[in-house]
């Protein structure tokens, strides 16, 4: 074997070793990441909105970004083995689109309606949108897409089933997210809309953004290889668990019952994937032990 061949094998071995360590960290802390972090996040955001936290802690952008990154870690680590240069390219395009459509939205009121960020979610790009916007948005699309693949099973082979279902899932995610985000003061619409302060135009905009995002994600990955990875990686959808707990809890606390009910539908979808065992989750809550399942 020549030197370049040995170098390639060594690189692959190093990558596999790093991947293994990352998976161990996520796997050993699943309950903390997927349950404790979103519950604490919901409490602190509501306390911030209600003026119960002092200024250094209320809406602290570093805490928001750190908590978001931790909750995203199962998805990121789970998908890393399926990330190649093709995936990076398509996600790069999606990142650029995410910034562009959000800046246009803030400055022109199209396509979401008139809205503005009421607090700074970390550094702001061009003074208009959070620099960390892709960290907030792209994982939501990936979660919706992965859940679609698992729930549809064989029907996911057809784009006529796969794409509309994934787009609908992305919009449904925002039906949970936006009412809760408005309630805790992340952003606000002018004038407020009929859906817990959110206008219908926002969801028309999300249909557009969701369609573009889902199509890019669909083209980014080798779908069969991705599905095989998702089936083998028991924690890859834990970020969606975090999402449901965080924003579903906030919706319940503010009486956004329809939004809370939609988050319940995502719970049913997650349970249907046969990777979340209510009994073992309850045991983990009571004992503080490692969250495991029969799949591990």
Topology overview:
Blueprint: H1 3-28, H2 30-49, H3 61-79, H4 85-108, E1 115-117, E2 124-125, E3 129-130, H5 133-152, H6 159-183, E4 187-189, H7 200-220, H8 223-232, H9 238-253, H10 257-272, H11 278-287
Antiparallel strand pairs: 1-4, 2-3
Helix pairs in contact: 1-3, 2-3, 2-9, 3-5, 3-9, 4-5, 4-7, 5-6, 5-7, 6-7, 6-9, 6-10, 9-10
Protein name: Carotenoid biosynthesis protein
Transmembrane segments: 31-49, 61-80, 87-105, 125-151, 163-187, 203-221
InterPro entries: BABR_hydratase, CruF, CruF-like
Structure report:
With 296 residues, the chain is mostly helical. The protein is built from eleven helices and four strands. The strands form two sheets. Strands 1-4 form a two-stranded antiparallel ribbon. Strand 2 (124-125) and strand 3 (129-130) form a beta hairpin. The chain starts with a helix and ends in a 9-residue tail after the last helix.
In short:
InterPro entries: BABR_hydratase, CruF, CruF-like. With 296 residues, the protein is mainly alpha-helical. The protein contains eleven helices and four strands.
**Overall 3D shape:** globular
What is the β-strand count? 4
Measured between the Cα atoms of the first and last residue, the distance is: 37 Å
Rg on CA atoms, Å: 20 Å
Number of helices: 11
Specify the biggest β-sheet: 2 strands, antiparallel
Structural class given helices, strands, pairing?
A: mainly alpha
In order across it, which strands form the biggest sheet?
Answer: 1-4
Order of helices and strands: HHHHEEEHHEHHHHH
* Mean pLDDT reading: 92
Summed up, the domain count is 1
Low-confidence stretches: 284-288
Give the proportion of residues in helices.
55-70%
Query: Which strand-content bin applies to the residues?
Result: under 5%
InterPro entries: BABR_hydratase, CruF, CruF-like
Keywords: Membrane, Transmembrane, Transmembrane helix
Pfam families: Caroten_synth
Organism: Natrarchaeobius chitinivorans
């Amino acid at each position: 074997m020549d030197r370049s061949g040995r170098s390639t094998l060594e690189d692959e071995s190093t990558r596999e070793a790093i991947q293994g360590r990352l998976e161990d960290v996520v796997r050993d802390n699943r309950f903390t990441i997927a349950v404790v972090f979103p519950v604490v996040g919901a409490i602190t955001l509501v306390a911030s909105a209600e003026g119960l936290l002092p200024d250094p802690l209320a809406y602290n952008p570093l805490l928001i970004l750190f908590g978001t990154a931790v909750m995203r870690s199962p998805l990121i680590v789970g998908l890393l083995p399926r990330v190649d240069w093709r995936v990076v390219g398509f996600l790069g395009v999606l990142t650029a689109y995410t910034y562009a459509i959000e800046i246009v939205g803030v400055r022109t009121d199209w396509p979401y309606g008139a809205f503005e960020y009421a607090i700074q979610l970390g550094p702001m790009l061009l003074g208009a949108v959070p620099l960390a916007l892709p960290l907030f948005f792209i994982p939501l699309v990936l979660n919706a897409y992965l859940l679609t693949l698992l729930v549809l099973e064989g029907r996911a082979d057809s784009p006529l089933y796969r794409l509309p279902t994934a787009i609908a899932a992305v919009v449904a995610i925002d039906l949970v997210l936006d009412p809760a985000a408005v309630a805790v003061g992340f952003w606000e619409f002018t004038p407020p809309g009929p859906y817990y302060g959110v206008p219908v135009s926002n969801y028309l905009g999300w249909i557009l953004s969701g369609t573009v995002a889902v199509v890019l994600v669909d083209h980014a990955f080798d779908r069969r290889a991705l599905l095989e990875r998702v089936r083998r990686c028991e924690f890859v959808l834990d970020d969606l668990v975090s999402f449901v707990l965080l924003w579903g809890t906030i919706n319940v606390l503010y009486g956004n019952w329809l939004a809370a009910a939609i988050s319940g539908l995502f719970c049913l979808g997650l349970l249907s994937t046969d990777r979340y065992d209510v009994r073992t989750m309850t045991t983990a809550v009571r004992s503080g032990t490692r969250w495991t399942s029969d799949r591990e």
